[in-house]
Design brief:
The protein has helices spanning about 5-25, 30-45, 60-85, 90-110, 120-135, 150-180, 185-210, 210-215, 215-220, 225-245, 250-260, 260-270, 280-295. The chain is an all-alpha fold and about 300 residues long.
Length: about 300
């Protein structure tokens, strides 16, 4: 892998973990995540002029985009509501890692993708085992009720949203490339369109949820600059990965390196947010990371 591609992936890793920790620190809510994401997409609107005109895209593309935005909204809502109820150092790895297991399984079941080999299977077992270790910070936590909490449920919602938009985005990007886009311009344009579509889905939901409306004054206190900065981190992390993929043929290494955001997120949660550290949390993170590397490679 070239030094430039490696540097881009590592910057993306740090940015992804950082915006999650910032979101937890600044009173997480669907409103804060969706508005930040929409603000980042708005700033990047000039990217829409890259490649062929939007009018060249087929009608099916817009349907996939709408579904992708819906899944992205569910991901952000699940993530925000999970962080409001639990630790980033536990919930971030779960929301980040489980889609790596679930996407191949759904692809096999619904899309007829390749059958998993034994290393994929072993990697998935390790990911699930690591996720189960994360909440076990003390002996009293070793019971079923530890996992049957609203925070864990919302983390699973975030993971399900990630599975949805990951599979949908592949279809949408394929249609863009068929309309004349390169992989790079398709990724850049879709990144902006998805952010704007997510905001479009989120606005009516925010209007229907009193708890979310009550958090809007807190967003004004954070300021527009913080909202835009967070949104740019949210939108740009994937853009940096797309550029890295364009600079190297070693796709599996890029996929594997992206998972470094899991230990980075755990460390940020422990060191920056002062969340409790434990041996179970460290072991769970390492086991999960090993499993992710097996699946990616």
């Amino acid at each position: 892998m070239s030094p430039a591609a490696l540097a881009l992936v590592l910057v993306s890793v740090c940015m992804h973990a950082a915006w999650n920790v910032l979101g937890k620190r600044n009173a997480p809510s669907l409103a804060s995540f969706a508005l930040a994401y929409g603000a980042g997409g708005t700033v990047l609107i000039p990217l829409l002029w890259l490649g062929p005109s939007l009018s060249a895209l087929p009608i099916a593309f817009w349907g996939w985009l709408a579904l992708s935005g819906l899944c992205q909204m569910l991901y952000m809502g699940g993530l925000a509501w999970a962080y409001a109820r639990g630790d980033v150092s536990v919930l971030y790895p779960i929301a980040r890692a489980l889609p790596v297991v679930l996407v191949p399984l759904v692809s096999i079941a619904l899309l007829g993708s390749r059958v998993l080999d034994r290393w994929d299977g072993l990697g998935m077992v390790l990911v699930v085992a690591g996720a189960l270790c994360l909440p076990l910070s003390h002996p009293e936590a070793r019971r079923l009720s530890t996992y049957l909490t609203p925070a864990m449920g919302f983390a699973l919602l975030a993971a399900a949203g990630t599975v949805g938009y990951s599979l949908i985005d592949k279809q949408a990007l394929g249609l863009m490339q068929g309309a004349g886009h390169s992989g790079l311009t398709a990724g850049a344009v879709f990144m902006v369109l998805q952010a704007l579509m997510t905001l479009t889905w989120a606005v009516p939901l925010l209007a229907m949820l009193p708890a979310e409306r009550r958090r809007l004054p807190a967003l004004r206190q954070q300021g527009l600059a913080m909202l835009v900065a967070t949104g740019l981190m949210m939108t740009s992390t994937y853009g940096l990965v797309l550029i890295a993929l364009a600079l190297t043929d070693e796709v599996s290494y890029v996929v594997a390196l992206r998972q470094l955001s899991i230990p980075v997120g755990v460390l940020m949660g422990v060191l920056w947010l002062k969340e409790p550290a434990s041996r179970a949390k460290a072991i769970g993170t390492l086991v999960m990371l090993a499993g992710l590397v097996l699946v990616a490679l």
